[in-house]
Predict the structure.
Amino acid sequence: MLTRWLSADFPRSRVLAALLIGLLLALAFSPFLFPGVKALNVAAKVLVFVVLVASFDLLLGYTGIVSFAHTLFFGIGAYGLAISLTHFGPTWTGLWAGLACALALSALLALAIGLFSLRVRAIFFAMITLAVAAAFQTLASQLSDFTGGEDGLTFNVPALLSPSTEFLEDPFLGVSIDGRLLCYYVLFVVALLALLSLLRIVNSPFGRVLQAIRENEFRAEAIGYRVVVYRTLSSVISALYACVAGAMLALWLRYNGPDTSLSFEVMMDVLLIVVIGGMGSMYGAAIGSALFMVAQSYLQDLLRVAHDAASQWPLAQDMSYVVALLSPDRWLLWLGLLFVLAVYHFPTGITGRLRKS
């Protein structure tokens, strides 16, 4: 059954296979292996970004479409859930209604953008999508009565997924078995199914046509494939998965605002993760998301420890510039350095490098 889903697209590297299995087990048992609120939040963000990055890689890595509007559909999914649960209350009806409306709106917008813009080549299409995403972010910020404006929306989720719901009176292995834990495993199952289904899509005949378009658009059109149709379908499918990722984030945070799901910083994070993990590989989305989220969340803590240790050196005053570089406030500098090193040593991404070794 698994072979059928993967369509024989196996890691083809023992190291990569070990990393993927380790990541799967780490995420599956994260609440018990890494107790604490921060660790669970990091694991949940990894699950969200696995879906978001994999959906973007369907566009960039498999179809060759450079789009800056991906956070638009991510934000629609998050806002759809937030608005619905705010107006209908913490009910399952509100949750499913919000998700359904968000998916429908994402599909329609992706179709419209595809039909009107995919005939435009290269950078011009990227600029159009960037303008659409910026316009939507501005709209979400100004419609305060509907979207909460800059403050966003804080809402409650169905009681079954709420932290106040406890299924066991006593903790199991030091972890409270409550609605928050159930919510995490809902995200885990959705992320796993989304990744497997995307693997199936990219390894199907449809996915191979997308790769042919990426390699040589004119040749694909010459042999009879309607390039605009395939590119539009790829945009719609990618938008639907990004919408699901946005709904996952809103469900976990129980909050959504413009900076949470619509900011350009989110788009930049997605681009970095695709490059680090490797374009044209769904496995790269998983590996890259895990590495980036862990680095982003814990690099400041590591620098704080290193800074405190360096401050105790006997020559700390003479090497004050080194101590200053280790300040937690400079974590973005070190994150950028790590990114440069990753690109230098893994020009085809981690997945691409491991598959060639």
Notes: The longest strand covers residues 153-154. The CA atoms of residues 13 and 357 lie 8 Å apart.
